[in-house]
Amino acid sequence: MKNSICINCLEIEQPIGKFYIGVMDAKDLFSISYADVRRISKRDVEQYLGIQRPLSPKRVKEISNYVNTVDATFPTGVILSIESEYVKKYDEVAKQMYIDNKPEVAKIIDGQHRIAGLENFTRDNFQINVVIFIDMDIEDQAMVFATINLAQTKVNKSLVYDLYEYTHHRSPTKTCHNIARLLNSKKDSPLFGELKYLLNH
């Protein structure tokens, strides 16, 4: 096993401070990352520790199935927090960063289900775009996690299924969607006009 992982990345500066946007191989990301799962520790009173939610086996299974489809993609970045002791200085000329290649180096702020789902990826490699914060304090970690997860607007499922019509690759989802639309639109179909699209209601 290599002693360090080389990441091609760019340095970004925003009000929260500096961070890095880069690319990692999924197998490398899986080997060094961990989730600070929200858990309960009983002392005099119950105290909540950590910022992540427990992994959902159902969600992980869905992602595991998805990543092995022909058009799988994760366009949004996995967000990590890494202590500076595990990072060599960022090379501004080469645009590279070296991170120690060992377990529990990178704490997952957002993206734990995507990473867990990639464990069963069956092809050669899957590259992941990552956002890396160095020496990020726990308050900022919690704020970023909460902002991302509370601000998300769920997309109407009917819209998602309608968009499959525009994909070029065959998939079970696209096939089922097209069959459903056909059964709903053909006058001699037993399901003519019976299938309701949430998009229109």
Short descriptors:
201 residues, 7-stranded mixed beta sheet, alpha+beta, two-stranded antiparallel sheet, single chain, 6 helices
Instruction: Tell me the Rg in angstroms.
Output: 21 Å
Which band does the percent of strand residues land in? 25-35%
Helix/strand class: alpha+beta
**Order of the strands making up the biggest sheet:** 3-8-6-9-2-1-7
Mean pLDDT: 80
Low-confidence stretches: 43-48
Note the total helix count. Answer: 6
Overall spatial form: elongated
Structure commentary:
The protein has 201 residues and is of the alpha+beta class. It has 6 helices and 9 strands, in the order ββαβββαβββαβααα. A 7-stranded mixed β-sheet has the order 3-8-6-9-2-1-7. Strands 4-5 form a two-stranded antiparallel sheet. Residues 43-48 have low confidence and may be disordered.
